[in-house]
Write a structure and sequence with these properties.
The chain is elongated and about 85 Å long. It is an alpha/beta fold and about 325 residues long. The longest helix is centred in the last third of the chain and has 35 residues. It has an 8-stranded mixed β-sheet with strand order 7-5-6-4-1-2-3-8, with helices on both faces. It has 2 domains: about 210 residues, Spore Coat Polysaccharide Biosynthesis Protein SpsA, Chain A (Alpha-Beta Complex), CATH 3.90.550.10; about 60 residues. The two termini are about 15 Å apart. The protein contains 10 helices and 8 strands. It is about 50% helix and about 15% strand.
Length: about 325
Amino acid sequence: MKNKEKPVLYIVIPCYNEEAVLPITEPLFKGKIDELISLGKIDEESCVLFVNDGSSDSTWDLISSCAKNDTHVKGISLSRNRGHQNALLAGLMEAKDLSDITISIDCDGQDDINAMNEMVDRYLEGYDVVYGVRSKRETDTFFKRFTAESFYRLLNWMGAEVVFNHADYRLLSKRVLNEFAEYREVNLFLRGMIPLVGFRSTSVYYERNERLAGESHYPLKKMLGLAFDGITSLSIRPIRMITGIGVLTCVLTFIGLIIALIKGNSLWIGTCLICLLLGITITAIGVVGEYVGKTYMETKHRPRYIIAERTYEED
């Protein structure tokens, strides 16, 4: 481990089918490493670490070429597509023993890389976790802004502890990663798991840009899936809500039966109550089944990722 005055920084970047944007953003990430080294903020051994998440295009060829031409660029390639969260985890665990700090960021160039300067400054002041938080969403459409902000509010309301308007742009110290390595969940939701580790944390704020090239890999469907994974991985509140709804339904059903008996019009009321109970029962079974399924996957202890290739030799 290097002197904290000049920590070794690894910028960890998951990539999935990013051949359109990688030639644009790779020089930006590499330039940021060079800038921070020249400012005396980080050690000369600092690197950009790209993680190829089983891309079907030329992403890995581009990463390999960049790594061959520059010692400050490295890459690892997963054996198959494992999803953004697993790819990010692979990069963080790979960098854990090679660096003092990591900064994770997406490949699309939307997150302001200049916020890294302040992140490193906050680390040098004694913070182990520095969250990159969007200050505003003016570049988003109304629909995108509404759904994204609703996403964070829903997660917090359901009991998943997340930083509002923070995705996966963050600085983590070596000791945070060492402790985080003990978290063995298969169902990953990193932005909700990192706060569970603890340690001293703060946030830096930045304006997010439009994607520089290519298409987004996080449409509404994936965002909803990520929200559902986050809720069911970090909170049991949905089950408790269903229990409450079940109790309330039983009370209302009992009252309805009394009213039906008094008025003698039991057919219509009974039919409505049966439909309501069926809907609640099916929903309850679905939610509980999701938890059972996740428990089943956890018990298998399958590897969350497999690294097939590296652009460098392991120490």
